[in-house]
Amino acid sequence: MRILIANESVRMIGGTEKYLRTLIPALAHRGHKLGLVHGDVPQEGDDTLDPGGYCVRWPFAQLGLDRTLAEVKAWAPDLLFAHGLVSPVLECELLRRYTSIFYAHGYYGTCATGSKVHSFPFIRPCERRLGPMCLLLHMPLRCGGLNPLTALRDYQVQMKRSHFLQLHASVLVANSHMKEEFVRNGVKPEKVFTLPLPIDEASSKPHYRSFESRPLSGRILFMGRLTKLKGVGCLFPALEMAQKRLGFQLHLTVAGSGPEDVRLREAATRLPFTVDFAGWVDRKGQEALFEISDLLVVPSLWPEPFGLVGLEAAAFGVPAVAFNVGGISSWLESGSNGELAPGNPPTAEGLSDAIERALSDPDHHTALCKRAVQKALQFSTNAHVEALQSILMASVQ
After folding, report:
1. pLDDT in tens for each of the 397 residues of the chain?
2. 37 to each of 3, 70, 75, 177, how far by Cα in Å?
């Protein structure tokens, strides 16, 4: 099958790109021919989602609309596998021309800001269906910035995407939380397929280690984008409270970069525990951090559509603590492979309690580590690709 993948970025900037980097070689090794339409133009030295060169590429920003469409037509794809484009014009033209499957990595066409939270009087998840009330409530509930023109523009973009959702043959989602979201926003239930995200082949082969002989070190790991909604600012006070109650020193490694970087570094200087800012780390760097960490904390304040990093850590026997928001509970079972904190609203106190539960008893922590590995085994790339192929093949018959 000739599969045309559409994604805004070819550079490694988030979870969607991580997924495609895992998926592309798996599809190519099964004999599929792959093309990639993307919006950005990578610079020399950029880490990309197709380092193996499996895809024919069309950079829309460089080629323009007409040339992109003409070259894609000449390549003659059987199917469009869409993951989100910034340009509604390009997206619309591709949807008009090709049968399309859409994988919803986020709240595409269901939220005016894409974050799915209210921020006033405190941050909490939103379950509202996209519509005119979103514009009216944008300022009072602080759904996004305070610029009304930006709010209007974002709303119009998401309304177009809501329309595009109806044009896809199928919508794929990672869990029941996301399925409920898209059905609530008008996508027919029979068009929505639940297909959990996989961890890459390296991570899907669990890295067993002697949990019994490895004492707790107090090393905590955060890995992700440094934005307000990723919750590192909430993690700081949570760890401070947990350290007092646990009675031993904690050490936090923050692996990632983003707009909150400078503010978080300044705040970390006032904390009673050490914080190491590792910046963005590559796959080998991530694995090295998993090997030495007792616990991964996923303190996201917004309803994470999935939270793949938790399963990547689990493959190394690292349990996770997270707020019970969005799709987190589709892979994190409190008391089994990690601990959940209440997510509506998410608070530092609740997160601290969950961290304490995970680390206060060495035997309980060891059990969490073992079951984390067992959970990771359930999300293999091979199982995901086999299920995806069935959906793709059915859509073109």
Report:
1. 999 999 999 999 888 999 999 999 999 999 999 999 999 998 888 889 999 999 999 999 999 999 999 999 999 999 999 999 999 999 999 999 999 999 999 999 999 999 999 998 888 899 999 999 999 999 999 998 889 999 999 999 999 999 999 999 999 999 999 999 999 999 999 999 999 999 875 554 555 555 555 689 999 999 999 999 999 999 999 999 999 999 999 999 999 999 999 999 999 999 999 999 999 898 899 999 999 999 999 999 999 999 999 999 999 999 999 999 999 999 999 999 999 999 999 999 999 999 999 999 999 999 999 999 999 999 999 999 999 999 999 988 7
2. 11, 12, 12, 29
Dihedral sign for Cα 332, 283, 49, 301, please. positive
Residue type, 236: F
Q: On the CB side of 59, how many CA atoms lie within 13 Å of its CA?
A: 10
Kindly give, in sequence order, each residue whose CB lies less than 8 Å from that of residue 103, ignoring residues fewer than 6 positions away.
19, 81, 82, 83, 171, 172, 173, 195
Threshold 0.85, pTM exceeds = yes
Domains of the chain in sequence order: 2-198+380-395 (3.40.50.2000), 219-376 (3.40.50.2000)
Q: Hey, what are 139's tokens?
A: 């300022």
